[in-house]
Amino acid sequence: VQLQASGGGLVQAGGSLRLSCAASGTIFRLMTMAWYRQAPGKQRESVATITSAGSTNYADSVKGRFTISRDNVKNTVYLQMGSLKPENTAVYYCHAPPISWGQGTLVTVSS
């Protein structure tokens, strides 16, 4: 599966941004999808996950502010990010477990 992430950019603290990840292939609807991020000098960490059935899971640090969703017609997974903080600055990656990763999209939150 090939993944193409987009939607990153520069946003002020408190603002919102929506990331998109388009997946190739016909089995997208059967796949669990996830968003990860890696901040400068830190390890990559899980942000949110959505199963094929639509069940979601979030890192504690983003609960209530971020929403993961999917469109199985468009083969796309989204990450709606709100109330952004400078510490959310990172490269965000979409991931189709176990091995497929998108190229990453940079999100920069200014204070």
Provide an overview of this structure.
The protein has strands at 3-6, 9-12, 17-23, 33-38, 45-50, 56-58, 66-71, 76-81, 90-96, 100-101, 105-110. It is globular, with a radius of gyration of 13 Å. The strands form two sheets. Strands 2, 4, 5, 6, 9, 10 and 11 form a seven-stranded mixed beta sheet that branches. It is an all-beta fold and 111 residues long.
**What would the average pLDDT be, to the nearest integer?**
96
Shape: globular
Annotation, overall tally of beta strands: 11
Sheet with the most strands, sense and barrel status:
7 strands, mixed
First-last Cα distance: 37 Å
* Alpha-beta content class: mainly beta
Helix content, binned percent? under 10%
H/E series: EEEEEEEEEEE
Strand % is over 45%
Question: Uncertain segments of ≥5 residues (pLDDT<50)?
Answer: none
Radius of gyration: 13 Å
The number of helical runs is 0
Keywords, separated by commas or semicolons:
111 residues, single chain, globular, seven-stranded mixed sheet, four-stranded antiparallel sheet, mainly beta
Task: Summarize it.
Helix content is 0%, strand content 51%.
Blueprint (SSEs and pairs):
Elements: E1 3-6, E2 9-12, E3 17-23, E4 33-38, E5 45-50, E6 56-58, E7 66-71, E8 76-81, E9 90-96, E10 100-101, E11 105-110
Parallel strand pairs: 2-11
Antiparallel strand pairs: 1-3, 3-8, 4-5, 4-9, 5-6, 7-8, 9-10, 9-11
